[in-house]
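Quick look at the format.
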Amino acid sequence: MAKPLVRDFPRKLIPVSEPNLCGNEKAYVNDCLESGWISSNGIYVNRFEESFSRYLSSPHAIAVANGTCALHLALLGLGIGPGDEVIVPSLTYIASANSIIYSGATPVFVDSLPDSWNMDPHQIESAITSKTKAIMAVHLYGNPCDLDALLAITRKHGLYLIEDTAEAFGSRYRNQLLGTFGDISTFSFFGNKTITTGEGGMVVTSRADLAEKIRLFKGQGMSLQRRYFFEVIGYNYRMTNIQAAIGLAQLENAEHFIRAKRRNAELYREFLSGIPGLQFPHEDGKCFDTFWMYSIVLDPSLPFEREELTHYLSSKGIETRPFFIPCHQLPPYRHHQITLPVAEALGTRGLNLPSSTCLTREDILWVSEAIRTFIACRK
């Protein structure tokens, strides 16, 4: 039997995620406070949008209140609404599906691939109907979808591609940044994301007509040329100047954060190697994964449930998160009455480990040793 961990915790708690505010965040926020521009007007919203656009080499980036708003606006911009269907993976955060409902359309759930954990292109083909208008590609936990396959399907069937890049800022496919493949793409800057504004999101597109519609809808539908003239029923989905100030400072350190995420992945692979029954993230030659979350999947042959491991890790001061529960298994979407075996298995056996850019080598070693000890003691 393996020896239990006996040395002291490296710190009281190793959170699953924490923001890294190591740059100009305080200076920029203080500038907002001193100037009095704290709501949706002010220089930092424009600066953040312009900097994000340059980072992606995409001409249009529109800052919004959060990632869910971004998805809703993307669907509205494409004209997707009642009577339309959007194909989406079931194994995703519920906001992906909810945004489709907000637009009046219907989500059509497909299963995942067992290696990348992303949506299965073969399932997409069989899910397309005359009502299908778009595919929403969710790059789960930072790992790129098979964009070659998805783009071929959209071209073949005349569909839109929406990239839900909430978890994959900085990831690449064939050396091209995610968020630049779709007709329209979205990002989230929630507090646990690779770059954060606390809450916040971004809509990105290369199409000027879509960008203009997004800006119209996000500001209550008020004309961009005539104040208080409302052209459509819009939404208050604007980002504040303070949020944008934090985002700009975060973006200045983006490459540092991405290197830290990939360093975390390298250390986990090293320290967890040789432990039986663990599946690690799959990064093939076409993909550059930023490992927003470093995730493992427990083999069903292991003689314990995932929750036993999470409780043990918690007792050692290690916070974890289970994989998302597939949407079709949640109360709002159970009426779909489908079985998606890969997504269901991953949702039961997947686990996200501490993944902050603030982690030290000692933190990751502590997590890995705890997992090794637990598994060895239950053989």
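Next, a different chain entirely:
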Amino acid sequence: MLASDKLIEAFNQQIGNEMGASMQYIAIASYFDSETLPQLAAFFYRQSEEERTHAMRFVKFINDVGGRVKIPALPAPQSDFASAEEAVGKALEWEEEVTRQIYDLVEIARGDRSYVGVRFLDWFVEEQLEEVSSMSDLLAVIRRAGQDRLLYVEEYLSRQGKAGLASPAAPAGGEAAE
């Protein structure tokens, strides 16, 4: 067997973790939308889509190795934030937690001698470096700007090309639907 029942169970839990992250990022994006900060909102809507894509990678892997996908119940995301710093700090904490989760999955796969599982997880290890770095940078920029100068953060995201979609309803190219 390419993956043990233990690894499949852990991957199913990770599907929930990734979908939970997706929902948390929608909540953060909505917070920024309500504060009329469209670049920050777009950044987090894009992050939400990425997390959903990550979940789907686990779904495909489980199906490919003949396992059964069992998506766990998901807790409601935090929806209220006192500041942009709190919202992005929450995102950074989440990415650091996901990094720990991925490392734990690697250890399970190694322990089971599931080399196909280890190889699959290599992509996620690299992805987490990017995710933690990106959130750390964004949090540093927000702290430097301060709550009263978030328009500088908007400009930073615009210049960095990190905003992504204009809204959750916009197609992948960022153009408005006709």
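The helical segments are 5-34, 38-64, 84-111, 115-145, 150-160.

See the schema section for token definitions.
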